[in-house]
């Protein structure tokens, strides 16, 4: 049996954005985003910013033209993990490493269900996080007091072509545990829920003509959204609309999200806690 990674916690989703400065401003103004670290580099300008108790790494490529076909998107997600175990499992599952900086590495999305999985042996959370230069992670009370009324990170949705194969791969590779199966008629899709560390990963696949199938004809498979709990869903909707954002249905029944056309091109979803 191949090695399976026992992820400790979600570190952060990675998002490719077109304009880093505008994205930071948007997340600060709409969600009370807390800027954590500036990460300039030769190929991109990146940063860490916390929203709703979850850190995000934003990447602005030096030239966005190569990303223009699919626009802003989730590149992948980082988990805290034992690095020896992560390297062994990655090799045994024949997952290609696309970028390796020794203390962390990214997998090739083409060999890992459309996601660049990233693993890191340390943490970006707490007052002792050594790579944080501005603000350390905030307490839940801070996020609860923000306008949308955060009640914690819940997980992410992951669009896939073959849902059974994706579920089996994630169970074997990152010790994912099945927790539910459901229909998502609003998307023309079906879903399988998996628990990966503290993330609820909802796999979704098209089963009929609908929004998800049309999206995937352009973007292929990969992370579709980040999901947060909120204290009062109606109040969260009112807050988003008050910020001039159109609010549409989320993936699960009752969930909502700001229209990605108003939201930097990527999706945050909100569900009643």
UniProtKB/TrEMBL annotation:
<keyword id="KW-0479">Metal-binding</keyword>
<protein>
    <submittedName>
        <fullName>VOC family protein</fullName>
    </submittedName>
</protein>
<dbReference type="InterPro" id="IPR051785">
    <property type="entry name" value="MMCE/EMCE_epimerase"/>
</dbReference>
<dbReference type="InterPro" id="IPR029068">
    <property type="entry name" value="Glyas_Bleomycin-R_OHBP_Dase"/>
</dbReference>
């Amino acid at each position: 049996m191949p090695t399976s990674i026992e992820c400790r916690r979600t570190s952060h989703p990675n998002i490719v954005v077109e304009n880093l400065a505008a994205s930071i401003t948007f997340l600060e103004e709409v969600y009370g985003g807390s800027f954590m670290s500036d990460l300039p580099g030769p190929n991109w300008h990146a940063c860490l910013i916390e929203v709703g108790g979850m850190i995000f790494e934003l990447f602005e490529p030096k030239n966005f033209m190569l990303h223009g076909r699919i626009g802003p998107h989730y590149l992948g997600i980082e988990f805290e993990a034992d690095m020896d175990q992560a390297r062994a499992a990655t090799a045994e599952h024949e997952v290609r490493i696309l970028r390796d900086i020794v203390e962390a590495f990214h997998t090739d999305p083409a060999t890992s269900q459309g996601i660049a999985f990233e693993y890191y042996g340390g943490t970006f959370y707490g007052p002792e996080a050594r790579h944080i230069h501005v603000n350390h992670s905030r307490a839940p009370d801070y996020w609860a007091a923000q306008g949308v009324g955060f009640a914690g990170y819940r997980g992410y949705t992951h669009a896939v072509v073959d849902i059974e194969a994706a579920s089996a791969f994630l169970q074997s590779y990152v010790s994912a545990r099945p927790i539910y199966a459901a229909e998502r008629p609003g998307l023309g899709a079906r879903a399988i829920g998996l628990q990966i560390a503290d993330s609820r990963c909802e796999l979704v696949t098209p089963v009929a003509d609908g929004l998800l199938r049309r999206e995937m004809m352009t973007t292929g498979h990969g992370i579709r959204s980040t999901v947060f709990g909120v204290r009062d869903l109606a109040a969260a909707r009112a807050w988003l609309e008050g910020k001039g954002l159109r609010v549409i249905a989320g993936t699960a029944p009752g969930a909502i999200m700001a229209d990605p056309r108003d939201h930097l091109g990527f999706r945050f979803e909100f569900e009643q806690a």
